[in-house]
Design a protein that fits this description.
- InterPro entries: 6-blade_b-propeller_TolB-like.
- This is NHL domain-containing protein.
- It comes from Olea europaea subsp. europaea.
- The chain has about 750 residues and is an alpha+beta fold.
- The protein has three domains: about 160 residues, 3-Layer(aba) Sandwich (Glutaredoxin); about 260 residues, Lipocalin (Beta Barrel), CATH 2.40.128; about 230 residues, no CATH class.
- Helices cover about 20% and strands about 30% of the residues.
- A hairpin with a 4-residue loop joins strand 17 and strand 18.
- Helix 13 crosses helix 14.
- The N and C termini lie far apart (about 90 Å).
Length: about 750
């Protein structure tokens, strides 16, 4: 009897551990939705099958041990082994059984092992990426949680037959660019479990006690609550409460996909939506991954641009911030462009006359205040952050893409997968209805979708099949996913080509296909990814941290006026699309140097000046020229070399005082490949390699990956316009002023000139 008692006591000590492991959050072992995990191991002597799933009412995961077969030599490889594998691979970019995609080298030690993780686990299947929209919905859920919870550490685990980067299909690379996936993806040929019902979400803290949720059956709110509960346990308060909107990610934590870093240096990066002004000569192109809308005419001349950088901010066109703008339409009566701000989960409006961007939906709290003082503030202070109202609900306005206007002035907005329809009142900006049933969505929008899709019937089918959005759940409307990418203009059908990073036009009369030849790039200004805060421009121990520099040179000169002539040799096999414009250059003089205007009379700079008078002149110069320097677009004397092919000349003038100073020059050179009569496959590969070397001079991204992406389109690579960023840093060490040969202690300002040669 005492022996039985001791055995029961030992069993009672083991059972709590078993229940904590397999019945977490479900103490009664209630049945529920599940995904089956199983794997084979030859080293074990028994087989255990476990079903792990979720029940929202319990807020956790549970499992049921339903069989033990001693005669088979198989054993469950639990999800803990997957976590161990991920943990061991975090700091290894590539190994025998894995490789990381879309991960930077400097993020190896960013992940905090005791932090909260969200892992999207599944099986990489090329067919699923090309024939289903479910993967896009899955990524949208993860991205929305990543935006809502900045502390969340997100990654994806994908099982594939090969873990070698070179063997990865371009479909997965295109998916990263198309969906703008900012988190890294771990590819491995190790098969930990078989996904019976598709991908799943794994949430855990400190690589233990994972919560596993089936993608098919889990609502976004369930995942959000699980993450919030872990965060509250860890911090005693939810960090997300400090954010202005439940589903808006602040600019401070905004991150761009690493794989897209090189593709930013194309003129267009995933151009996917276009609209036209029916009664004018203006087209509106959503340059999605550049976070801007480009306005151009039928000749390709760029007229204006809406948006300056990624973020969420109203204001004038130069300062407004967008995040992946999508579909748009032009309202002739208001002279306004309505457009979808996809990753800000908003509808915006651009007043073309005032050149002001405003938010239509979600409404700002400030709009509720109709006082005279609010009206005055709105008139004199157009640049302001939007304080949004947005709650976490199943009808949340997440990742809208397509935009249409009904006959009764309602806005019909659809997400890319056509799974949700939002109806917004155009006048009041209030949400009228949210529809999630496909049959009802088709009943409401079929006529409008058909009308927008009519021009697609005239385009060759083989061309449409190259595009990313060629699939749609509506069988009655083939290629409906491209309805926002096409517009009829004059005698042409204009179609976005996000695969080839171009905009094409089809002649209705001749049936010929051609690409727009864009010009007037100075309107676009210097790209936002080349404009760094001044504190990042400065050097640390003589090396620019995280910033590629094409040329650094130091000079020792006398103080005074210095003329700088910068001669640049552009890369071989390329040519300038158009001469370098002033708007594409940014210069900054730091330390004891200041830039001067062209109008300054250089001849007067050699005269003798009293020290006291010079001091007062410098004070006057600071008082009256600082604001002008900040607002003017002409910072100095700039010249451009026109004579020699393959060369660019930039000149500027600065004034220096005794001490150290530096001049930083950024420029965007718009290039294309030189013409080559041959077009064989080998030559196309060479062209892609040359473009890859230009757009990614630091080789941060694998050249093979860039070449694969460039070759996915059958477009002529010689028509592709790309940017070669230029970054030059010149340092000056200036001695004391020369003294005049008199007793008044006058100083002499000298004229100097330097020539700098840079080969790209």
């Amino acid at each position: 009897m005492s022996f039985r008692f001791r055995r029961l006591l030992q069993i009672s000590l083991i059972l709590p551990k078993f229940y904590r492991k397999f019945y977490r959050g479900n103490p009664h072992g209630l049945p529920g939705r599940s995904i089956d995990f199983f794997a084979s191991y030859s080293t074990s002597s028994y087989n255990v099958s476990t079903s792990i799933g979720t029940r929202p009412e319990w807020g956790g995961c549970f499992g049921e041990r339903y069989s033990t077969v001693s005669e088979t030599k198989k054993k469950l490889l639990p999800e803990v082994d997957l976590l161990s594998f991920i943990r061991s691979s975090l700091n290894e970019p590539q190994g025998a059984t894995h490789c990381w995609l879309n991960k930077t080298d400097d993020t190896n030690n960013v992940y905090k092992e005791d932090g909260i993780f969200l892992v999207l686990a599944g099986e990489y299947n090329e067919d699923s990426l090309t024939s289903q929209d479910d993967i896009a919905v899955t990524f949208a859920k993860v991205k929305s949680l990543q935006q809502r919870h900045p502390f969340l550490q997100v990654l994806a685990f994908q099982h594939s037959r090969s873990s070698c980067t070179n063997n990865i299909s371009t479909h997965l690379l295109q998916m990263i660019i198309k969906e703008y996936i900012t988190f890294p993806i771990l590819l491995s040929n190790k098969h930990f479990f078989k996904m019976a019902n598709g991908p799943c979400y794994i949430i855990f803290k400190g690589f233990k006690n994972p919560l596993v949720y089936s993608e098919k059956d889990t609502d976004l709110m369930v995942l959000d609550k699980a993450i919030s509960d872990l965060n509250i346990q860890d911090n005693k308060k939810p960090i997300v409460s400090d954010m202005k909107s439940s589903w808006i990610k602040p600019i401070e934590v905004f991150k761009e996909p690493y794989l897209c870093s090189a593709f930013r240096n194309l003129l267009l990066s995933f151009p996917d939506c276009i609209s036209v002004e029916e009664n004018g000569d203006r087209l509106f192109l959503s340059d999605v991954n550049h976070h801007r809308i480009i306005i151009f005419n039928s000749n390709g001349k760029i007229l204006d641009a809406i948006g300056s950088s990624p973020g969420f901010e109203d204001g004038d066109f130069e300062s407004a911030k967008l995040k992946r703008p999508a579909a748009s339409f032009y309202d002739d009566s208001e002279d306004c462009l309505y457009f979808v701000d996809s990753e800000n989960h908003a509808i915006r409006k651009a007043d073309m006359e005032r050149r002001i961007v405003e938010t239509v939906y979600p409404r700002s709290n400030a709009n509720k205040n109709n006082s005279l003082w609010r009206w005055i503030l709105d008139k004199i202070w157009t640049k302001r952050n939007v304080d949004l109202e947005s709650e976490c609900t199943s009808e949340s306005f997440l990742f809208p893409w397509h935009l249409m206007r009904s006959s009764d002035n309602n806005l019909f907005i659809l997400n890319r997968s056509f799974g949700t329809l939002w109806v917004i009142d155009m006048a009041s900006g209030l949400m009228r209805e949210v529809v999630k049933e496909s049959s009802k969505i088709l009943e409401i929008c079929e006529e409008m979708i058909l009308e927008k899709s009519i021009p697609l019937k005239k385009i060759p089918t083989n061309w449409l099949q190259q595009q990313l959005d060629a699939n749609c759940p509506f069988e009655k409307i083939p290629y409906a996913g491209l309805m926002s990418s096409v517009a009829t203009y004059q005698d042409h059908i204009v179609v976005c080509n996000p695969v080839g990073q171009m905009v094409s036009k089809f002649s209705s009369k001749s049936g010929l296909i051609s690409s727009f030849q864009f010009s007037n790039f100075g309107v676009l200004g210097l790209p936002y990814w080349l404009s760094f805060p001044l504190e990042r421009v400065s050097a640390v121990d003589g090396v620019l941290s995280g910033i590629h520099t094409d040329h650094i040179e130091r000079f020792r000169l006398l103080p005074g006026t210095i003329d700088i002539e910068l001669n640049i040799d552009i890369p071989q096999h390329t040519s300038l699309v158009e001469p370098l414009q002033e708007g594409c250059i940014w210069r900054q003089a730091r330390g004891a140097a200041t830039e001067i205007s062209v109008a300054v009379d250089k001849a007067s700079s050699t005269e003798k000046v009293g020290a006291a008078q010079q001091w007062y002149d410098e004070i006057d110069s600071l008082s009256f020229s600082v604001q002008e320097i900040e607002t003017s677009s002409e910072y100095g004397s700039t010249q451009f070399g026109e004579g020699q092919e393959g060369k660019v000349r930039i000149g500027c003038t600065i004034n220096t005082s005794p001490g150290t100073s530096e001049v930083v020059i950024y420029a965007a050179l718009y290039l294309r490949l030189k013409g080559n009569p041959t077009s064989d496959v080998d030559n196309q590969v060479k062209k892609a390699v040359r473009i890859a070397d230009v757009i990614d001079p630091t080789r941060k991204v694998s050249r093979d990956l860039l070449v694969k992406l460039l070759l996915t389109s059958n477009s002529n690579l010689e028509e592709l316009i790309f940017i070669r960023p230029l970054h030059v840093k010149l340092k000056f060490d200036c001695r004391d002023h020369l003294k005049a040969d008199n007793h008044l202690k006058d100083i002499i300002l000298t004229n100097s000139s330097v020539k700098v040669h840079v080969t790209l």
